[in-house]
Amino acid sequence: MKRFIILTVSLIVLLTVQAANKREFRGAWIQCVNGQFNGLSRDDMQRTLSYQLDELQKDGVNTIIFQVRAECDALYNSPYEPWSRYLTGVQGKAPSPYWDPLQWMVEQCHKRGMEIHAWINPYRAKNTKNIIPQASNHISVTHPERMFTYDGLYILNPGNPLNREYICKIADDIVRRYDIDGFHIDDYFYPYPAAGQTIPDDKEFELYNNGIKNRNDWRRDNVNIFIKQLRDSIKSIKPWVKFGVSPFGIYRNAKSDPNVGSDTNGLQNYDDLYADVLLWVNNGFVDYLVPQVYWEIGNKAADYKTLITWWNKYASKRPLYIGEDVERTVKFADPDHPNSNQMPAKYLLHQQMPNVDGTCLWYAKAVVDNVGNYGNVLRNVYWKTPALQPLMPFIDHKAPKKPRKLKTLMIEGDHVLFWTAPRGKGWQDEAVKYVVYRFENGEEINLNNTGNIISVTDKTFCKLIEKQGRSVYVVTALDKMSNESKGSKKKVKL
After folding, report:
1. End-to-end CA distance of the chain
2. Does the residue 181 lie in any domain?
3. Which pLDDT does position 14 carry in this prediction?
4. Which domain holds residue 447?
5. What's the order of all strands across the beta sheet hosting 461-463?
6. Predicted confidence (pLDDT) per residue in 228-264, tens digit
7. Buried b (16+ CB within 10 A) or exposed e, 383-403
8. What pairs with residue 435 in β-bridges?
9. 69 is a domain residue
10. Cα–Cα distance between 8 and 6 in angstroms, integer?
């Protein structure tokens, strides 16, 4: 058992990990399809989610990717699709007492200084292996002609342009009505290949081939069109909402493409799922990318080191975050340090990759449950100090003005620092969050030192650290793209 306790190698960790990055995506996926909310009352589900968010915040997570549409259903009040069975147990049944999980999560994440990204599965409609009644307004009931069955699934046919329009309508509704920071889709485009089965899209290929003669190229074109259409649609409503995709972890194997492929032997985005991920990155169809590099270091078919190196090299035109499998990371020993699991080695690789701007954890509950001591090591070592979001200057690069009128007041026995929001016009200039730094008297004011951050908040006040003597507090403003203003200083004597 000792080999899987990371703290036994804490000296190695501390010697190898670099100084904490000020800007780093630190995400976690909270999914519904694992059934963790089944049978929970509103209050119990809210308590469960509150506990998860609190623990993830302590672990240093700054972004929650929340699954709100698993199979053409909704964990929010949708005018187009039925309430999810993963919420109420019965598709189409509204929660009672009524509440809107997505709206609630937006509020909860923002008050903790976290971003929230709404996560949908775009094409998957139904698992036919489960005999579950579908709601009357479910698209498999209203438009069965627009989907096909494959390996036990009902899937919206990517070859039908009406389905692209439909998914964009769903996304537009979410983006318009909810104050989300990002919109996220996973890797379910065309279905994962199943032996002995073919995709039944002859009719669509005949009707909508657009002059493309090769069916595989046509399928890739369908997905490419969808990705660009979805991003354009989101941006037309709220330009600041980040659009991210989490593709399968292998783009192409070298045996399929000796020039670009990785030294791997597994399922391929390009050839098997018809997802030309590099085209999306290189042409700006996405704002960020989170490849699911879920394997371990030393995996014979898909070595982790090989793949993170490949993504770092080929996918640098947009912010790149690595999707990490928490359980697999702590399950396997580090080949170079057999007494440790692979967490130190993987995070060292992250630091060594200049184009890797963050990590997303699969899945959140495993971190909250502290599987393999993963959560403890995050909060005590790697993510001990806060991090701001990576910049996206291709969306907006101008920082807001700095906060004004800093003052301290005594409120119910606590010293509280207050400030006034800066003036700004339009979403590019509006301050939505603030960073509060604390420095000892005489200490150099260095805003790049994340150890001095005491709070990232959407409020215009912050409780001071009760420490006798003189100190200096600095408050900066963040806009929707996390551009940071200059700091406003306040000397405090307690």
Report:
1. 48
2. yes
3. 44
4. 404-493
5. 404-411, 414-420, 461-463
6. 999 999 999 999 999 999 999 999 999 999 999 999 9
7. beebbbbbbbeebbeebbbbb
8. 456, 476
9. yes
10. 5
